[in-house]
């Protein structure tokens, strides 16, 4: 499948709309939820740690409709309406990086951010999940992942402060929650 076909297909999938307390209120396509000013919807962000405590980051592929080529947590996405967040995250982790590992939810936060480059927005009730993985992702999908890197959480926190434009706007929140829990 071509990059544009993959991006188009993902944009038509349904996301679960939520209220300010994270309770489901309905659904809409991904593209509609990310059109300014945005609709608050459920999302997940996975951050994997290795044995030495480093975190696995991915650089988002250039074909992404939101925040392309910025560095982000290991993977992220949206559960389908009514789908378990952990189940959706496990599937997405396999799709994006070819990684299978146990995940556990460690917290949630809400954020809203506009992507000046694409005109799209994020307005998400984000579930943060963590897991363990050591080594190199076996099958990074080039339509999803431009690059990946293992970094120390302390170094990442410093880099987020020094060069925020290189990173997705949600990464700081994910890192704070994940490192408190791990």
UniProtKB/TrEMBL annotation:
<keyword id="KW-0413">Isomerase</keyword>
<keyword id="KW-0479">Metal-binding</keyword>
<dbReference type="InterPro" id="IPR000086">
    <property type="entry name" value="NUDIX_hydrolase_dom"/>
</dbReference>
<protein>
    <recommendedName>
        <fullName>Isopentenyl-diphosphate Delta-isomerase</fullName>
        <ecNumber>5.3.3.2</ecNumber>
    </recommendedName>
</protein>
<feature type="active site">
    <location>
        <position position="124"/>
    </location>
</feature>
<feature type="binding site">
    <location>
        <position position="124"/>
    </location>
    <ligand>
        <name>Mn(2+)</name>
    </ligand>
</feature>
<feature type="binding site">
    <location>
        <position position="96"/>
    </location>
    <ligand>
        <name>Mg(2+)</name>
    </ligand>
</feature>
<keyword id="KW-0414">Isoprene biosynthesis</keyword>
<comment type="pathway">
    <text>Isoprenoid biosynthesis; dimethylallyl diphosphate biosynthesis; dimethylallyl diphosphate from isopentenyl diphosphate: step 1/1.</text>
</comment>
<feature type="domain" description="Nudix hydrolase">
    <location>
        <begin position="39"/>
        <end position="173"/>
    </location>
</feature>
<feature type="binding site">
    <location>
        <position position="34"/>
    </location>
    <ligand>
        <name>Mn(2+)</name>
    </ligand>
</feature>
<feature type="binding site">
    <location>
        <position position="122"/>
    </location>
    <ligand>
        <name>Mn(2+)</name>
    </ligand>
</feature>
<dbReference type="InterPro" id="IPR011876">
    <property type="entry name" value="IsopentenylPP_isomerase_typ1"/>
</dbReference>
<keyword id="KW-0963">Cytoplasm</keyword>
<dbReference type="GO" id="GO:0005737">
    <property type="term" value="C:cytoplasm"/>
</dbReference>
<keyword id="KW-0460">Magnesium</keyword>
<dbReference type="GO" id="GO:0004452">
    <property type="term" value="F:isopentenyl-diphosphate delta-isomerase activity"/>
</dbReference>
<comment type="similarity">
    <text>Belongs to the IPP isomerase type 1 family.</text>
</comment>
<feature type="active site">
    <location>
        <position position="76"/>
    </location>
</feature>
<dbReference type="GO" id="GO:0046872">
    <property type="term" value="F:metal ion binding"/>
</dbReference>
<dbReference type="InterPro" id="IPR015797">
    <property type="entry name" value="NUDIX_hydrolase-like_dom_sf"/>
</dbReference>
<keyword id="KW-0464">Manganese</keyword>
<dbReference type="InterPro" id="IPR056375">
    <property type="entry name" value="Idi_bact"/>
</dbReference>
<comment type="function">
    <text>Catalyzes the 1,3-allylic rearrangement of the homoallylic substrate isopentenyl (IPP) to its highly electrophilic allylic isomer, dimethylallyl diphosphate (DMAPP).</text>
</comment>
<feature type="binding site">
    <location>
        <position position="78"/>
    </location>
    <ligand>
        <name>Mn(2+)</name>
    </ligand>
</feature>
<dbReference type="GO" id="GO:0050992">
    <property type="term" value="P:dimethylallyl diphosphate biosynthetic process"/>
</dbReference>
<dbReference type="Pfam" id="PF00293">
    <property type="entry name" value="NUDIX"/>
</dbReference>
<dbReference type="GO" id="GO:0009240">
    <property type="term" value="P:isopentenyl diphosphate biosynthetic process"/>
</dbReference>
<feature type="binding site">
    <location>
        <position position="41"/>
    </location>
    <ligand>
        <name>Mn(2+)</name>
    </ligand>
</feature>
